[in-house]
Predict the 3D structure of the following.
Amino acid sequence: QLQLVESGGGLVQPGGSLRLSCEASGFTLDNYAMRWYRQAPGKERELVASIGSTGIIMYYADSVKGRFTISRDNDKNMVYLQMNKLIPEDTAVYYCYRPGNYWGQGTQVTVSS
């Protein structure tokens, strides 16, 4: 059974950092590009970052360039999103996504003082 399980969210002060993790199971991770999306309250879900199957970075949203880093470890079946210099506008539920319309359950990130 295919599963994507996110973790690592939480409450952080502005300027702080978090590292999100996505544990993949039920499929061969290194066959797929992977993405992180986020959805803030009252807003549409937006693509944050995308990484190719071999680790080539494919996309960052302008709003996170220079602050967020997507990475993956195919041997561990993991995809990561390192988030630095967080701002309140980063508050959202963050989702791991695999092409084919497979989503994780999401992890809440709240940036607030």
